[in-house]
Amino acid sequence: MRILNEYNREAAVDYARRWALYRNPKYKDYDPWGGDCTNYISQCIHAGKIPFDHDGKDIMHKWYWYSDSSRTPTWTSADAFGRYILNNNGYQTSNYGIYATLADYDELEKGDLVQLIYEGSAYHTMIISEVILDNRNYLIDYLVCQHTEDLIDFPLSEKEGERRYIKIFGYYK
Question: Which InterPro entries match (predicted)?
Answer without folding.
Answer: Amidase_6 (IPR024301)
